[in-house]
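Subject: mismatched residue count in predicted assembly?

I count 479 residues in my input, but I want to confirm that the predicted structure covers every chain. Input:
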Amino acid sequence: MTDVQLTIVAFLTIGVYTYLYWKDNPIYTIIEHMYVGLSVSYVFANTFHAYIVPAVRDDIVRDGKWHFIIPLLLGLMIYARYSPSIGWLARYPMSFWVGYGAGYVLSYEVPVFIGQITASFWQLNSVNNVLVALCFLGALTYFVFTVRREVPGVAPAAAFGRWAIIVALGVSFGSTALYRFTIFVGRAQLLLFDWLKLG
Amino acid sequence: MNFWDRVSNLDRRILWAVQMIIVVAILLRPIGLPIAVSSETQLAYDFFDNLPPGSIIWADFGTSGAALVELGPMIYAFFTQAFNNNLRVIGGTLWAEGPAIGQIIFEEIQEEFPDVEYGVDFVNVGYKPGTQILVRGLVDDVFEACRGVDYFARPLADYPLMQEVPRLTADYVDAIIVFAEGSPGGREWYEAAAGPEGIPLIQGTIQMSIPEAMPFLRGGQYAAIIPGNRGAAEYEFLVGRPGEAIATQDANSAMALWLITVLILGNLGFLLGKQGGGKK
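Triage response: the counts match. Full output below for your records.
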C-alpha cells in the first residue's frame, strides 16, 4: 500500500472506532455506509459480469440454451414483491428455493450429523464423550415439558442441562469477544507499524 | 452505591481505553511468550508435509478484510509450506473478496519462490457464487462451473494445472483447504464435495468458529483444523516463517487475560452489588 492509501485506511479505521466513544456519530455512519455500499456493489458487479452476462450472451443468445430463461425469470420474480399488485409472484421462486434447501438438507446434512453423533455420543470411551452425552441428554430434558419435573431424576437432569446450555453460550460469547479483540490487535498493528512506522 | 455497584456501572469507555493502552504497550514492547503447538495445528502441518510432491490442493480463501488478521497469516504460511513441498494449489472461493486477497498473498509469496509459476503451480479461478450448488457443480465439471475462465477472465484450458483437474473429485484433487471466516465455509465444502467424494478437508478457522469446527474434527470429517489466530501463529512457527500472527500473540494473550479479568469483576459486581441481591 502507498502512504496515501495507508493514511486513508488509518483514518477510516479510527473513524469506525469512534463508535466506542461517541456511539452512532456521523463519521461512523458515513464509513459504515461506504463499507456496505462497497461490499454490495463489489459482489453485484462480480456476479453480474462473471455469471449473468455470460449466461444471457453466451448460453441463451449464442448457444440457444433457451431453457436457461426459466431460472432467469425465477430470479427476476423475486423483485415482484416491490409491487403490491404482483407481489404474489415472489412466492414461486421462494417456494422453489425452500424446496431445494429442504431437499439438500435431507440428502447432504443428515450424514454429517450422524457422523458427529457417532463419534462423540455413542462411543463413550473418553471423559469428553461421556460429558457430551450427559450435556446432550440434560439439555434435551430441560426442553421436554410433557414430563413432570416431579418425576424422579427429571429435575436434576434439567438443571444440569440448563448449566450445560449456559456454559455453551458462555463459550460462544467468549470466542466472539476474543475474535473482536484479535481484529482490534490487527488494526492496532496497522496503525502503529504500517502507518506511524513505530516498529 | 457500594464498591461493587461502582464496578458493575463502570463507564465502558474506561474499559476500552485500558484495553487500547494494553494493546499498544504490548505491541511496542513484546514480552515474547513461548508458543506451544496444539495437536490440531500439528495435524494440519503434518498432513501437508506428508503429501507427495506434485499433489493438488483446492484452496478456498473464504475471507473478507475483517478476518484477515486471523486468516491472512494462515494463507501466507500455507503457500510457504505448499511451495516448499512442491505442492500445487487451485484457489476457488465462495466469498467475493477472497480471490483478490488470495492473489495478493500469492504474488507476495511468489517473490520468495521465483520458480513458482502462475498456471503451473497456482491458478486462481476466482469468486464463484452459488455455495453448495457451485461446489456440486465443481464435482461434476470444474470448467463448466467456473464458466471456463479464471480470476483474470483468461481461459482455464490454457493452464497446464487446470488440464489435470477436470472434476473436483479424489481422482484429481488430493485435499481441500478452506480458510473460513464464516458461512459458506468448511461445512459447505464438506457436505457437497469432501464428504461425498472422499477428499480430505482441512479448515483454517477464525477464533469465533472453533467451537463449530471441533465436532467435524472429532467426528473425523475434517482431517485437521488451524484454530484461529493462535493456530495461525503455531502454523507460522512450524513452517518456519514468522509473521504477523506470531507478532500478535503477546497482545492476544493480554487481551484474553483482560477479558477474563473484566468478566470476573463484572460477575462479582453483579453478585455482590445491590442489583444482584448483595448487601442493600
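The first strand of chain B starts at residue 56 and ends at 62. Marking this ticket as 'not a bug'.
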